[in-house]
Amino acid sequence: MSSGENRNGCTTTAIIPAYNEAERIGKTVQSVDEYVNETLVVDDASTDDTGARAQAAGATVLTQSQNQGYIAAIKWGFRAADTDVVVTIDADGECPSDRIPHLVRPVCKGEADMVQGNRGKIVRPSEQFLTWLAGWGGPVGDSGTGFRALRTDLAQTLDLDGKCICGIFSLEVLGRGGKIQEVPVRLNEIDKPRGIAWYHGTQVFYVVQALVRTAFSLWTDDA
After folding, report:
1. Cα 201 from Cα 181, distance rounded (Å)
2. Are 15 and 74 in contact (CB under 8 A)?
3. Calpha distance 40→12 (Å, rounded)
4. How confident is residue 6, by pLDDT bands cut at 50, 70 and 90?
5. What's the rounded Cα separation, in Å, for the pair 178 and 145?
6. Can you tell me the distance from the alpha carbon of 106 to that of 8, in angstroms, rounded to the nearest whole number?
7. Do 78 and 113 contact (CB within 8 A), yes or no?
8. Which CATH number fits domain 12-222: 2.40.110.10, 3.10.129.10, 3.90.550.10, 2.60.40.1570?
């Protein structure tokens, strides 16, 4: 999409964190391009030609000097964005790009500060638990989804402490007074093995910390 406002009335940047996704990244970039003003691929020190293929597909590529993980990648993308709204989307093509306008529209209209793509079913029990736990801090919805649209100025304030975004992302938005909406999405079928997310065990600690901070903030406000 050319520069300027998109069909939703505001400018949008897609942020795609990627690590060793050379076989999929080109198609993902092309599928996203028609719905946003700019596509940023943050190459997390891939050992294949992910960055080159993303650039060939039309993306602006930011390359991390060493592998730092998903959170560091999206935070760099947030800092680099210069549009009204940022959209996070996975590099593997699992997220349906044609749902981007549905995520962006409520943010552009001021109806929400963040809109999440609700996957309907969370496969990993550990992620289900993290979402349940985070829910004690407010309506976090599908807190582990990688498909979101949010105000860029809000995104740039997020700390996102932890090993992954599960629970933390939504809790931080709520903690900053943000309003969260969701739209249903049906994920695309991809041929990609799913490993055990051992880091979810550590993530419990970060979610509990966030809940304690939220409770303390509410207590001091009422005092």
Report:
1. 27
2. yes
3. 11
4. low
5. 17
6. 9
7. no
8. 3.90.550.10
- pTM for the model: 0.90
Per-residue pLDDT tens over the stretch 9-68: 799 999 999 999 999 999 999 999 999 999 999 999 999 999 999 999 999 999 999 999
- CB burial string 69-86: b at 16+ within 10 A, e below: ebbbbbbbbbebbebbbb
Helical axes 199-222 vs 125-134, angle rounded to 10°: 10
Taking a C-beta distance cutoff of 8 angstroms, is the pair 34, 9 a contact? no
The answer to whether the beta carbons of residues 149 and 107 sit under 8 Å apart is yes
For helices 168-175 and 199-222, angle between their N-to-C axes, nearest 10 degrees? 10
3-state secondary structure the chain: CCCCCCCCCCCEEEEEEECCCCCCHHHHHHHHHCCCCEEEEEECCCCCCHHHHHHHCCCEEEECCCCCCHHHHHHHHHHHCCCCEEEECCCCCCCCHHHHHHHHHHHHCCCCCEEEEECCCCCCHHHHHHHHHHHHHCCCCCCCCCCEEEEHHHHCCCCCCCCCCCCHHHHHHHHCCCCEEEEECCCCCCCCCCCCCCHHHHHHHHHHHHHHHHHHHHHHHHC
d(CA 173, CA 169) in angstroms, rounded, equals: 6
Find the Cα–Cα–Cα–Cα dihedral 69, 74, 79, 80, rounded to 10°: 100
